Amino acid sequence: MDNINNYLNFIQQEIVAEEKTVKVARLIVLLIKIEKELYTVKNTLGKLKGNEETDNSSNSKNTVDGKLATVEMLLEKIRKARLNLNYYFI
Questions:
Q1: 56 phi, psi to nearest 5 deg
Q2: What is the pTM of this model?
Q3: What percent of the chain is predicted at pLDDT more than 90?
């Protein structure tokens, strides 16, 4: 039982020690990494779309267009989230 209490006290000390600004900074870094990965996906889908235009395959072209739209939507949401988090530091 003492081990559990010690563990809970240790967790509480970590939570207190980690300030809000550190959490926000970590979240911003994570969003930047996700954004970079989404740009990679966007470039790959763009290349795939270019290849599909030469094949005239409308079904896969519609799929690629839908995925590109989804990636753009996610990128926009991440940009807005990062902007809101950056205001925390101002």
A1: 60, 35
A2: 0.70
A3: 37
